[in-house]
Design brief:
Elements: H1 2-19, E1 36-44, E2 50-57, E3 61-66, E4 79-81, H2 82-88, E5 94-98, H3 101-108, H4 111-114, E6 123-124, E7 131-140, E8 145-155, E9 157-160, H5 164-183
Antiparallel strand pairs: 1-2, 1-7, 2-3, 3-5, 4-8, 6-9, 7-8, 8-9
Amino acid sequence: MNLFKILTGILFFLTLCSTGKEKSNNINYDVMNQKILFQYEFVNYAWGYQHKGWIIDSTGNVYCYDLPKNWHQYDSLGLINISYLESLILQIDSVCFTIDKIELYSNTALIEKASKGEISEPKQEMFDAGANFYTAYILNSVTNKYESVLLKQTGDVQIENKSDEAKELYKWLDAINHKIRNLNK
């Protein structure tokens, strides 16, 4: 039971890092000119360590990873340095597939409004299921840091971005996740 509390605490902290910041209206966001746009990530510490997922870049490439090293070190505000996040792609040796640019850009246009969505309170749903994170990124061109926009978290703890744009992006990213899982069968 203590292990469960520790793992739940870790997952909750990671979620707070990605959702616990406020965005100023004076910040210059540059969604259309950033390299990293979306990410799906699965992390589970129960019965052994699992960490896998994928990143979508601005060209539509979907980079898949499994058990990466030195991954995602957010600062205390949940921000990621631009060079650090973009260097993560260098660790990935697999492009699962490429998304059509029109489809990508129409979904990219939803990120900024999704970033303003209200985030639900964490709700315990399961045990030992880990956490699935569906995330979009916004580049702050003043600080050169990516801000994560939590669209939805499922698994042990469920958290939802309540904006319509976040819900639409979650459905789209979840469909991509199903395609990737089918490719690996």
